[in-house]
Design goal:
alpha/beta; FAD/NAD(P)-binding domain; Polyamine Oxidase, Chain A, domain 2; 2 domains; seven-stranded mixed β-sheet; six-stranded mixed β-sheet; 32% helix; disordered N terminus; binds flavin-adenine dinucleotide
């Protein structure tokens, strides 16, 4: 995600309240059922690995937790190597109020990556229409001059949504789970949150009194860099995206994917390098299990599990290649598709003339966002920092060869690369099925697919981010635990804020 564009203060009070909640533990449960003996998690991205970690916390040390991964641990958290340094090519930025991610980093003994300042500008295909300066007050004044109080309205809106969203940490710390994404959102922000998953962001902002010009020149570019889409994406994911440009962001020193490998170890989970091809229910007597069939480099195999969590998108476009067989009624193919975003990491000299700065020494920006302009072939270009930042590190000046990340819908051909770069040493391309292609009608997929078969990535249709997958992981671990132990009073409870207060 992009670095801060709007000057937004920290939600210190919310953070303090929620931090204490995140540290609390679920109280001892009354358990009658025999524990499960084997649980499978399919996918070792942040969703699957944090599920394994939370499952271990709730089900205890005896249960066998197997995590299947067909490619790399980390999934959409990945790096590319350029000139002996690694750079994030997928999910890169974490908000300071993402408490699960914070807690993982703490428990794993990882470090926060130092952020290196750099200015942002917005380009409309012909010129820079908004430029950040060294002067905070001047930036504020310019925003006010150009857009009136739109940015204050926006800031208050995002803060209100985040404050409500933060309730999840308290609910989860008290052990409450939700059987669907709708129930989860409803408990946090009532029908308002659910409506926000169906309504275009632009409509919500216009209703709020944010000007069309602000939407076109500021909100649009943020949606383009964060989700490769425009302001017609639903308001809820729009708010997630806007939280991602506040100025309290961080990343993991050494690469965000270290959290995934670390969580697998912490969970004492078995990593199986295998492609799961099918899952089917098997009933022997009263006992329901699931048969997982999979392919490894050395052949194919299958195994039985008591509980299965699918932690990878199931939409056709993502090609997880998992058949859910033998279920009654049979599963329909999930509607919707994933949006392609191409991340091109270039080692070279930025062509600052293209942005109206013939002399690169006078080009002061580290990040360039773009407006929704026909024929503009990229969403953003940013000078990026390696995942390991030494104390003496400084960002390269535009007159020097630097490392840049370009986000675009299509791969950049030679002509386009030559438009953006005067010359280059290397180009590395990662094509992502990055996040849902947000429309307004596909709805939110189920979490509970079958008695003990759960689906994590439905939450991405409300908002796709590392923390969203982690919240879904904690929810599924709690849900699986309560379902297994038939603790109905811990699932889909109403008026939780009041309940929690009276529990204290
Ligand atoms: C370019 C880009 C930029 C982003 N920027 C940010 C950001 O700045 N901040 C942020 O918070 N989020 C960001 N995101 C979103 C974030 O990366 C994702 O929401 C998150 O990583 C999803 O994690 P996941 O574990 O749910 O899914 P994934 O990471 O997709 O993990 C699923 C895993 O399942 C495996 N798998 C699939 N099918 C099978 C099978 N049949 N058998 C075995 N294994 C299988 C896959 O190989 C994969 O490793 C970005 C994403 C992209 C692509």
């Amino acid at each position: 995600m992009a670095r801060p564009l709007l000057p937004v203060p920290l939600l210190v009070l919310v953070l303090l309240a929620a931090c204490s909640a995140a540290g609390e533990q679920t109280g001892p449960a009354h358990v009658d059922a025999a524990p499960p003996s084997k649980i499978a998690v399919v996918g070792a991205g942040i969703g699957g690995t944090s599920t394994a970690h939370f499952l271990r916390q709730h089900f205890g040390p005896e249960v066998q937790v197997d995590v299947f991964e067909k490619a790399e641990v980390g999934g959409r958290l990945a790096t590319v190597t350029v000139n002996h340094n690694d750079y994030e090519s997928g999910g890169s930025i974490i908000h300071s109020l993402n408490l699960h991610m914070q807690e993982f980093v703490k428990q794993l003994g990882l470090k926060y990556r130092r952020s290196v300042a750099g200015k942002t500008a917005v380009f409309n295909g012909e010129e820079m229409i908004l430029e950040e300066t060294d002067w905070y007050l001047l930036d504020l004044f310019r925003l006010w001059w150009r857009y009136g109080i739109s940015f204050i309205r926006l800031q208050m809106w995002v803060e209100e949504i985040m404050e409500k969203f933060m309730r999840i940490y308290k609910y989860q710390a008290h052990g409450y789970a939700f059987s669907s994404v709708e129930e989860l959102l409803d408990s946090l922000g009532g029908s308002g949150f659910i409506n926000m998953t169906r309504r275009p962001l632009s409509d919500s902002l216009l209703e709020l009194g944010v000007s069309q010009r602000f939407i076109d020149e500021v909100i649009g570019p943020i949606m383009r860099v964060n989700y490769g889409q425009n302001v017609s994406i639903p308001a809820f994911v729009g708010a997630v995206s806007l939280a991602g440009v506040q100025n309290n962001l961080w990343a993991v020193e050494g690469g965000n994917k270290l959290v995934c490998s670390g969580l697998l170890k912490l969970a004492n989970a078995n990593l199986l390098q295998a492609h799961v091809t099918s899952i089917s229910p098997v009933l022997s007597g009263d006992a329901l299990q699931y048969q997982l069939s999979f392919n490894t480099e050395s052949g194919s195999g299958s195994d039985l599990y008591d509980i299965v969590v699918l932690a990878t998108p199931l939409q056709d476009s993502v090609e997880s290649g998992i058949n859910l067989e033998g279920f009654t009624p049979p599963f329909d193919q999930l509607p919707g598709s994933y949006h392609r975003t191409v991340a091109t990491v270039v080692h070279g000299y930025l062509n600052t003339s293209f942005f109206g700065f013939p002399d690169p020494r006078l080009f002061p920006f580290a990040n360039v966002l773009t407006t929704d302009t026909p024929n503009l072939f990229f969403n953003s270009v940013a000078s990026i920092c390696p995942v390991n930042i030494s104390t003496g590190f400084r960002r390269k000046q535009p007159q020097e060869a630097g490392i840049y990340k370009v986000f675009s819908l299509q791969s950049l051909d030679k002509a386009r690369l030559k438009t953006l770069f005067r010359s280059y040493y290397s180009v590395q391309v990662t094509e992502w099925q990055a996040y849902p292609r947000y429309g307004s009608s596909q709805g939110l997929p189920s979490v509970e697919l079958h008695t003990n078969l759960y689906y994590l990535n439905g939450i991405e249709w409300a908002g796709s981010a590392m923390e969203m997958s982690s919240v879904a992981a904690k929810n599924i671990a709690l849900l699986a635990y309560h379902r297994w132990n038939r603790q109905t009073d811990m699932v889909d409870q109403k008026d939780l804020m009041h309940r929690i207060k009276t529990e204290l």
